[in-house]
Amino acid sequence: MSSDTPDAAAWRRAITRFVTVIPHTRGFGLTVLEAGPERVLLRLPWDDDLLGDSTRGLLHGGVATMLLDTACGSSVLPALPEPEVCPTLDLRVDHYRPGVTGQDLHVEARVVSVTASVVFTEGRLWQCAERPIARGIANFMRLGARNTPPGFKQALFAAENDHD
Amino acid sequence: MTDAFHDAEWLARTRQQGDVTAWLERMPYARRIGVSVESAEEGDGLLFRLAPREDNIGNVLLPALHGGVVSAFMETAATLDLMLAAREPRLPRVVDVSIDYLRTARVVPTLARCELLREGRRMANVRVWAWQSDEASPVATARLHFALAEVSAQDA
User: Fold this and answer.
1) Are the beta carbons of B8 and B152 closer than 8 angstroms?
2) Which of A65, B65, B119, B133 has its Cα between 20 and 30 A from that of B73?
3) CB distance A27–B69 less than 8 Å?
4) Cα A33 to Cα B77: distance, rounded to the nearest angstrom
């Protein structure tokens, strides 16, 4: 293993940087619990703005889609030989049961396969681990090194001094 | 009387009035991302709008809207459109969503229109079309299945 292969802690910092520059998820306080080539695990603290039905206290289904998109997208970076910009091609979400008010959300995602043009991922969302809320399947387009801005990797693994 | 989705009388009345805004007011996440109903021209279905909020950005470099926010917008549109278009007052519950991202969604207003392709007794299939400057060049399309729950007076 070469010395520039990032370890789990380096990936956790890199993916934290990746998700905290996203204004939408930063606004809700999304945090990275784990990140690496095996999987990413994110947590979103409960916020009443996540509701889709305020009287019955049910999570908005679109939040599940948004979180699965974010988690699947984050899982792509550590699974590539070098980080590349990869837009979402498509996303499928199966809603197993409604999320409920007051409990933090956990979302994990992993890369299933990587080809020259596509990264295939899948993710899972839950509040209580034994009762998954949704499953997502997202495919990402590889734009390749040529279409990835120079300094993308360096920005992800920038020195510690700029994190708060 | 609770003025809530599961209140059959309230749901029937707001539906009769075409008061989609009253439904949106009870969907906090839809309000947070800035979903509104633009117009409800006769026979043309509802036109939905997503405000280009800074908070909806998913890529600061381009910049572009968060794909998941665009998807949540389309799911909200499909739900509300179905509640109005269904034969009877129903509470749709999303079963699955499949979304294709066709173009970068820039930080400008996004519009969406829905089509109810099938309404069975238990399930509905809705197609959503979202665009920005040109309806013929969608930024995303989606299809959704909904389970149609009956709203009984006892639920209220």
Assistant:
1) yes
2) B119
3) no
4) 33
pTM of this structure: 0.92
With CB atoms and an 8 Å threshold, state whether B94 touches A61: yes
Per-residue pLDDT of chain B (156 residues; tens, 9 = 90+): 577 888 889 999 999 998 999 999 999 999 999 999 987 666 668 999 999 999 999 988 889 999 999 999 999 999 999 999 999 988 899 999 999 999 999 999 999 999 999 999 999 999 999 999 999 999 999 999 999 987 765 444
Q: Which residues of chain B have a Cβ shorter than 8 Å from any chain A Cβ? A: 2-6, 26-33, 54-61, 66-69, 71-73, 75-76, 79, 93-101, 104
Name the amino acid, one letter, at A96.
Answer: Y
ipTM of the modeled complex: 0.91
**Residue numbers in B near A92 (CB within 8 A):** 96-99
Helix axes B67-85, A61-79, angle to 10 degrees: 150
Domains of chain A, earliest start first: 8-158 (3.10.129.10)
Token pair listed for A76: 């792509």
Question: How far is A84 from A7, CA to CA, in rounded Å?
Answer: 18
Q: Which of A91, A137, A147 to mutate to test the interface with B (most CBs of B within 10 A)?
A: A91
Q: Do B59 and A88 touch (CB under 8 A)?
A: no
Give the ranges where chain B is alpha helix by DSSP (H): 8-16, 20-24, 28-33, 67-85
Note which residues in 78-117 of chain A have CB less than 8 A from chain B.
87-95, 98
The CATH number corresponding to B8-155 among 3.10.129.10, 3.20.20.10, 3.60.15.10, 2.40.10.10 equals: 3.10.129.10
> What residues pair up with A105 in beta bridges, in sequence order?
A44
